[in-house]
Design brief:
This protein is an alpha/beta fold. 30% of the residues lie in helices and 11% in strands.
């Protein structure tokens, strides 16, 4: 399918169909009443809530990758709200074309409008260089997933 893709479009005959009703398959997005929250979804939601609850009061960076305005109420707006509400939190938003961050977050938010892979490499290299320049040989920064 990827080879047949032209730009962001897939030929209609390659779109998978439902084995029950024959309807076209669609992305699993929280955009209507058909979003499925099964066991694994709830487990992941629990891990996410634990992470957030475990970092209140700590210096934390929310790294947002490729989240646009398709369903901004799921990640994008909550991230902005959390940064607004937690003084030690900051937001790094990587998005090609939709990287703007609210001015109200001031220096605690940065939007990087570019290729995510290259941007992450640049951030990593800069972090490692600064750590080296500061003589910081210990790993003091915790990176969570
Ligand atoms: Zn169906």
């Amino acid at each position: 399918m990827n080879q047949a893709r032209k730009g962001c479009r897939v030929p209609s005959d390659l779109v998978p169909h439902c084995p029950v009703c024959g309807g076209s398959m669609a992305m699993h997005l929280r955009c209507d009443q058909y979003f499925v929250e099964e066991e694994h979804w709830h487990e992941a939601a629990g891990r996410y809530a634990s992470f957030l609850n475990g970092h209140f009061g700590e210096k934390t960076v929310l790294l947002e990758l490729g989240v646009g305005f398709n369903t901004p109420t799921i990640i994008r707006f909550p991230f902005e709200k959390m940064v607004r509400e937690h003084e030690g939190w900051s937001l790094v938003r990587l998005n090609l074309g939709e990287a703007a961050v609210p001015d109200s977050l001031k220096e605690r938010a940065v939007g990087i409008n570019g290729d995510i892979l290259k941007s992450i490499g640049d951030i990593r290299n800069r972090f490692l260089n600064e750590r080296r320049e500061n003589g910081d040989t210990e790993r003091k920064t915790r990176i969570s997933d």
